[in-house]
Structures are given as structure tokens and as C-alpha cells.
Amino acid sequence: MIFTMVSFILIIDFKISLINLNIPFQINLSTISKSHVDLYNKNVFQPNKHRINILRLSNPFTIELIFSPPCLLFILKHLIHLPKLHTLIPSLIDYILNSAIIFTQVFCLKKLKYCTLTYRVKDNKNVLSIDFDQYEQSSIEYLIINSPFRYESFQKLFIYLSKLRHLSINFLLGSNHSQIDFYPTELKDLNYVFFDLHSIHFHQFEELIKHFFHHIKVLRISTFNDSSYSHAKQWEELTSSSMPNLHIFDMNNSYTTTMHRFLYLCLSGQFRSKFWMEKQWFFDHQYDCHESSNNGIFYSTNSYRRKDHTFHLQFDHDIDSYLKKHGFKSVKHINVCGKRAVNNSVIYFSNVIELTIKNYGKIYYGSMLAALHQILALKQLKKLIIDCNDFPTQQVINLICLTPNLRFLK
Questions:
Q1: Are the CB atoms for 106 and 76 separated by under 8 Å?
Q2: How many helices (H) and strands (E) does the chain have?
């Protein structure tokens, strides 16, 4: 009873204070408990909808209580009643058949500048392209799509996003055989692009660059089992002719087949020519040295001074001696993976202060501590995360003994 009365008084005081303040709202309901959502909605959210400029919703019960009925269309339509909303980060739990319903409502928000969209589809390979004919110009400058998006939808998307500065798509889907006739759209403000590419051949990606991305300064892409991105000469021609302002080039190509391993072993040397050295864009080719595995990765190293790095202990590293010594000084956090310790072509991470250990098997070949000593200074570590179920307790104790500056252990 005492607790309830105190809570009521605090809510009344808080409500009066809000009424007397003329400041914008930033609301994050992703961590609030279910028992408090209804009270929060009645006393804070509903009376101040006109002042909200940032809204983050992720818990399904939160959405259901604030927006009724809990239907995706109704949820998105309610956003129009937040006239000052400039940041939107919806994470939708419903499976959707056509993502156009999301973009329709989001593009109608006149003040929206930043948007991160996360939605679910039942089949990533059968995502529909989006028709943007009915939409007005959008004010969005930063767009992040953490869900499947069709390559064919780009032409109309960019017509309505003339103010776009930053674009990130974590599942860009196409067809290796599709041919789309794009026409040029100048996006003068767009300077950052990231794509995780699926079933998009290099010649299709090249069309995107030539038609839309002439002004970009940062390009990051990742591919899987696609050798069409492994030829240095075509990259040299594309960056020189179509991306004259490109400053940061970050490429991550992973593979699991014998053919791709052979191609990267043969072609990776082309990325060490004068062109790449002058740009200061360097690459590392890591591949599993075990005979039964064809796993590997070809990726940029210090092209954008990355602070995080994943290091595979069982991989060989085809990398220049210059990079071994100078290319990883910016790395502060390293993810170490693998069940075997390989000593050849070791890279040293001199400034690492955070270590995460993953994929540790019950049978580990070689000394884990010896392998770690070869790649980093354990005494510098301030944070240690062991993300595996089979890591021996004695190894944990040994690591702690060798990390006198450790402040965080998980």
C-alpha cells in the first residue's frame, strides 16, 4: 500500500513536470516492464504525442497496448500522429508478404531523418520487389534495412530518397541472371553505402554503382561464394571511373568451396598492385589449412581503420609483411575462433584490449594460451568474453592469471 501510494505521487509529480516543460521527447519502450506499460501510455505517451521525436518499439506487448488493434497496418498508420518524429527504429515481429506496406507509411512521415527497419519474411529468396509509385518525396537521410530487400526496387527507391546520406542493407537480394535497365539518378548527398549481397553478380553491382553511387565516399560490401568480386582489375576500373570520391573501400568475401579457394589463392595477389598501395587499401586472405575444409575469407584490413577484427586460429594468412606489422594497430577488440593453433603467417594485434573467444571445441589442437600470446598482449586486456560451452575451467583460470588489468569477465 505504501509503495503504491508513493508510486502514484511520483507519477502525478512527473506528469505535472512534463506538462510544464516544452522539450521534445525521446522514448524507448524496449526495456519497460509489461506491468508499467499501460500506466506509462496513459500518463506520458498519449498526452505528449505531439512532442515525441524519437520512438523505439520492439516488445510486442508494448505495441499492442499503445496501438490498438495490434495490426501492422494500424501500427504504422498511427505514426502520422507524431508530427515531430525524426528517428524511428521499429522491429516488427509479424511475418509480412509485401514490405511495401512498411515503406508506404514510413515515407509519409514528413520530419523523419533516421530510420532503421527490421521486419520478418518467411522466405528470404522469394521477397517481392517494391513499387513506390504512390509515394511522395521522403525526408529520410539515414536508412538502415536489416531485412531482405530486392535489387530490382532500387530505381524507384532512390527517386523518393533524394536527401539520402547513409544507406545500409543487410540482405540485398537479386538474381544472377536478371537484367534491370536502370536510368541514372544523382544522389549528391549519399556518401556511405553498405550491402550484404546475395545472388547479385558483379556486373549487376557495377550497374548500381554507375547509375546511383557516383558521389559516395565509403563503400562496404560482403559476399558469399561469389568469385565474380575477386578480380582486382575490374575493381580498379570501377572505382577510378565511377567512384572518384571513394575514400574507404571495405570488402568481405567468404567462401566454402574448393573452386573459390583456388581462385582466391590465384587472384588475391592482384590486390597488391601499385593502384591498391597508393590508395592504402590492403587485404588479407585467410583460409582453413585443414585438408577436409575449404572455408576461407578474403577481406579488407585497414581500409577503414576497423576497431573490431575476427581472427581464425586454424586459418593460414596470405598477407604482406607490412600489414603484419602495421595494418592492425587500430584494432581494439578481437574475436578469436578455431579449434587448431597455426603458427605460420601470424598477425600481431598490438593494441587489443578486449578479447572474445568463440568456437572452442572439446578437442583443441595446440596450446590456446601460446596461440594467444603470438597475436596479442594478454597483460593489456581489460575485457574478456568466452562465448562457448566447452571452454575448460582451468583455461579460464590460466587466462585470468595472465591478465592483471582485466576489468570485465563474462
A1: yes
A2: 13, 17
Is the distance from CB of 311 to CB of 334 less than 8 angstroms?
yes
Cα 93 to Cα 71, 119, 313, 327, distances in angstroms: 11, 7, 37, 41
Residue 23, φ and ψ in degrees, nearest 5: -130, 155
- Determine the residue type at 264: Y
Give the whole-angstrom CA distance, residue 235 versus residue 248.
13
Distance from C-alpha of 55 to C-alpha of 276, rounded to nearest angstrom: 43
pLDDT of residue 192: 96
The number of residues in the chain equals 410
Q: Is the dihedral of CA 160, 191, 241, 230 positive or negative?
A: negative
- Rounded distance, CA 160 to CA 146, Å? 20
Rounded mean pLDDT, 219-231: 92
Asked if 94 contacts 125 with a C-beta cutoff of 8 angstroms, the reply is no
Query: What are the tens digits of pLDDT across the range 135-183?
Result: 678 899 999 999 999 888 888 888 889 899 999 999 999 876 667 778 7
Q: Domains of the chain: which residue ranges? A: 305-410
Which CA distances in Å does 385 have to 201, 305, 355?
38, 23, 6
Question: Is 386 in contact with 354 (CB distance < 8 Å)?
Answer: no
Nearest CA to 332 out of 307, 301, 306 is that of 307
Q: Which three cell numbers stand for residue 96?
A: 509480412
Q: How far is CA 369 from the centre of its chain?
A: 31
Which segments of 147-257 does DSSP mark as H helices, in order? Answer: 154-159, 202-212, 232-242
> In Å, how far from its chain's centre is CA 338?
23
Does a cis peptide bond (omega within 30 degrees of 0) precede residue 69?
A: yes
Measured CA to CA in angstroms, residue 100 lies from 73, 79, 194 at distances of 11, 16, 21
3-state secondary structure of 294: coil
- Whether 245 has a pLDDT exceeding 90, the answer reads yes
State the DSSP code for 351. T
Q: Enter the DSSP assignment of 188.
A: T
DSSP output for 355-394: EEEE---SS-BS-HHHHHHHHB-GGG--EEEEE-S---HH
Which residues on adjacent β-strands are paired with residue 75?
Answer: none
Determine what percent of the chain is predicted with pLDDT higher than 70. 69
DSSP state of 284: E
Q: How do beta strands 283-288 and 315-318 pair?
A: antiparallel
Q: What is the CA radius of gyration of the chain?
A: 25
